[in-house]
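Support request, please re-run this one:
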Amino acid sequence: MAHKISVTGRPTSSIQDYGKYLTFDMEEKGSPNAPKGIPFRSKAITYTVVLSLKQFNKLNINREEFSQRRFLVQGEPCLDIPFEQCTGEIGVICMQIQEIEDKGKEDKGKENKGTPKKGSRAQKQEENKKQEEPKKEEVKKQIFVPKGTRNWMSLEDIKVPETFLQFTPGIAKQKIVEESIEKNGTVDKPIIIDPETHELLDSYSRYYVAKQRKLDRVPVHY
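Re-run finished. Output below.
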């Protein structure tokens, strides 16, 4: 059966990055009292924990905040870690790591749970609203970029020759562009313009529908 070891506490060193794996130190304090009859006392031991990059990413904690959190590390002692990488007294190969709450935070949470504040329902609604706002912003940022797009330009900056303005695009063409705007928020293909004069060269139907839908800007190609 493999050796097992569990270490609890905060990292006592910064993270050392070795590509596919990381290392950091943790200190486990010994018990102040030994069983009766044993003349020795258990002292603090520093462990060097080795964990994979995948394990670290699952924690969803950036490296600056890492040393401020408490963790439970379950793993196996190892003697094969290079001396220059194992700065602790004992090396530990991490099999599982999870963040644990500070005892002070847990006690505070219990107190708050036992004596709910007035207006807690309104506070909860406000917290839910704050969580939804980043999601809405994230969806807004996901803009569809048609293939061949070289730039984005305001419709007001595009010069349309009189020859285009004399006719109305066919219903079928308009429908294709309208469906794209409803689905992606913009036209299905970039509008062709002259890069120097910004004059419309082709794709008038897309320009026409975008103008009707009052789009702020459209993708263009030179």
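Residues 108 and 114 are 10 Å apart (CA to CA). The chain has a mean pLDDT of 85.
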